[in-house]
Amino acid sequence: MIQQATIDRLIREIGEENVITAAEDLLVLGYDSTPGLHATPELVVYPTSSEQVQSIMQIARDNSLPITPRGSGTGLSGGSIPVNGGIVICLNKLNKILEIDEENLTATCQAGVITLDLFNAAAQKGLFYPPDPGSQKISTLAGNVMEDAGGLRGLKYGVTRDYVMALKCVLPDGSLLSTGGKSVKDVAGYAFKDLLVGSEGTLAIITEITVKLIPPPQDKRTLLAYFDDIRTAGAAVSKIIAAKIIPSTMEIMDKATINCVEDYVKIGLPREMAALLLIEVDGHPAMVAEEAAAVETILNQVKAAEVHIAKDEAEATKLAEARRTALSALARVSPTTLLEDATVPRSMLADTFTLIEKLTEKYALTVGTFGHAGDGNLHPTVLCDERDKDEMRRAHAFYDELYEQVLAWGGTVSGEHGIGIAKKEYLARQIGPGGVAVMKRIKQSFDPQGLLNPGKIFADN
Questions:
Q1: How far apart are CA 158 and CA 437, in angstroms?
Q2: pTM flag (> 0.90)
Q3: Which is it for strands 43-45 and 87-90: parallel, antiparallel or unpaired?
Q4: Are 322 and 267 in contact (CB under 8 A)?
Q5: ∠ CA 94-80-3, rounded to 5°
Q6: 82-116 pLDDT, tens per residue?
Q7: How open is the CA angle 377-213-199, to the nearest 5 degrees?
């Protein structure tokens, strides 16, 4: 239990309004977006500067209190759940865009800046910040960095890691580390920046981020293709990539997801279709026209049931927004929504869909699958009820068998959601004892007391 003297010290350091002790508030801040996982923190603090983060870290060290970093709580692997109690440090009040540098094509932001706010601020300057996780309207930039978030544009433009140029963070010993900068080329010393991206808050607490911006595409075209069977949709993805066409977006939804989305947004999606592909090409107008025509040809060659081209920007935006609602639409169907993050080589997409269908039948489950087909990142989502113990047992057996085959195909247990609590055992299978041992030595060197986001990533801590 945190002593009153420690609470008083925190109040003196960061202000009473930034220290939360009310039981009902603590309860709410013990969740993220992962079903079935919860742990109540003893205290929540809202720092407003890097210096306050340093003070909080020092107080935690002095009292051997675990610290769990948190943003908006949109994580899907339990990464911001305070499994060991202690202090939750919520960075949402660090929410200023400090600079958009048009000469160097960078933006510098505090940790709690909302992803979509950065995108819009860059767009106002005629610039483009490509990473677009599905939670972009609420997720924070530091949360994106900690999980190395992807998004719909990941196929062509990459993920968060590809845009991080510099980080300012507080280490577990309370010291401030700045790594990287605005220089396009920088190979001086160890690549701490790259180590910290995707570290899930286990090595440092990020307080400031500098990201790369790029010129926006001049033109884009959106195609929507429907299929009578999902294997054909997977084959279409492979053929498009094999034709050396890299769309900015290539998203897939199966029949269950199509119907849930149509129930939710009512935009006229055909309920009888087995799958749809949402494909967007962008770039120079001449290249866009050429690539769109080539994609349409391939879709017809594989015998897509229907192929449509969005008539204008408004229709294209409506289709993309419908895809972004997939998880919300599925979540309305049942009390519990188990969303996973299996990623396979693109050549194995069709086989993965076949496997998901087989396992769905084997374990008698309701499963909707959607995801970023262009980079092999699928989200098979089990619609279930955590109060039904047998159903939950079957759901976990479904994922266990799925991931076993995903790894056998050279895939990964996470393409963008991270490991957190939910996938610790799966990570151990993927990287083996040697990989786990190396990661633990890195963790130990940064955080010898084991206070920073304990209980995450490693299966036995």
A1: 29
A2: yes
A3: parallel
A4: yes
A5: 80
A6: 999 999 999 999 999 999 999 999 999 999 999 99
A7: 50
